[in-house]
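User: Show me a protein chain along with its predicted structure.
Assistant: Here is one chain, sequence first, then structure tokens.
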Amino acid sequence: MRKKTFLTGAAILGAAGLIVQMMGAVFRIPLANIIGEVGMGYYQTAYPVYIFLLVFSTNGAPAAISKMTSERIAAGRRAEAHRVFRLAFVVMLAFGLAAALGVALFAAPLAHFVKSEGSYFSLLAIAPSLLFVPLMSVFRGYFQGMQEMRPTAVSQLFEQAIRVGVGLGLAVFFVSDSLELASAGACFGASVGPVAGILILIVIYARRKRRAGGSPAPAPLARGRTPDGAGRATNGAGHETDAGGESAGALLKTLVALTVPTTIGISILPIMNVVDMLLCRIRLIDAGFGALEAEGLYGLMAGFAAPIINIPMALALSIALSMVPAVAAACGAGDRDFLDTNIRMGLRTAMIIGVPCALGLMLLAEPILRLIYPAQTVAISAAPCLAILGAGVVFLCVAQAMAGILQGLGRASLPVVSLLAGLAVKFALTYALTALPALNINGAALGSTAGYAVVGILNLVFVKRAAGVRFDAMLSVVKPLASGALMCVALGIVYFVCRIFLSLGMSTLAAIGAAAVAYVPAILKSGAVLPHEVELLPKGKALAALLRKLRLI
């Protein structure tokens, strides 16, 4: 029953995360077509700040709050679980106010520092989001601690829908006035969206509180409660209940100790993007490019190529989020076999997802950009960036999955070490390579991919040492790569044949379809996915039955 609950929750969060990323792509594609590479450069100066806070809200702080909440509810300490919620709300309110005021007050110096004066209004427009995004993390973590994933999923969908609608509407409204205002309008959508998200969460919280007659947490055990010798109450299992509890200082210390490393460890992409935002234009100008030209080059990578990477990353992040409770549950139960199975499956799943995404983006970088951004002919200049970043997707998938495993093992500091090492490599290569005129913005993409590789490899090494598990290289690496190679052959043949008869867009879609048709049977027939693993998925038995009829498993 426990495993079923976990899989259902993981499926809800994973599906919501993928839909949110798809909605984000729907937003970014027309936005790039509306405001072009220079406008996207302005937009991308402010957006990494929002993305980091969004990761913090969606994954970092909620993971810490949910852990603290679930531990106290399981021990029958309902009031203390609600104290965690109240304390976290106050802390995040203070943090959000400081962040919002800080960005608003220092918007002009920051825009000047990164040599992007036109991004000033975008930074101002994004500032209010920094107040509301942290507050969402408190509600999401509290509900997740009660194993309620739907409130998080619903709030994510509402938040993104409002962001997309408001952001695109304002960009269209202001584009005739100036690119600076159009970019700011798009950023302001990211400030309005969280307001909708937090209102949804407040409504859900209030309804459950009314139904529960107090706090919305599950009622504590009623039977077997007797006072112990220290004046505290215990339930039948001897757990402390509401009568006693930790001090606010102790709760705050635990909250910070869990939140900070968890957030940093899973913020690989946002933190790397912040490095680009701070460094790229400065080094491009040092290379001899003009300020507006540097803005456009940065916009090519950050505005056209990077958003495409976010779609496979939604799948990678869902792996990481689902690994944490699975590994933690296995550790808590002392079930070594279940722990090893989950860890091995984590690497294999990361490779099965990462390999085709990386190869497809590398081979079809230019056709994909032409298909997605038909109104921006300059978008094809981002093809080298997309191909280079695409190569890093497989390392990102491994890095995220292994980070989730390490957090489940209670070793949340190790992904931080990996990220710092990858960040050092990223910074050094971006600083050196972006200033070379022949490479220009492609140097930043090379720095990112190298940084992703360092993080992924180190996380994998840390997992092997921490868990003492051995990976089957044939199953986890060779078979996905071999299936990917077969996919590339099918993709190439279909694309070049279709180009004789069809348009570039239709040829690209046909090639992507052929890649899927080739890869899925190849990965199933290779044995990289086992029949019982298919059955563990939601509706897995029906899916496994269908695959058996097709003789794919």
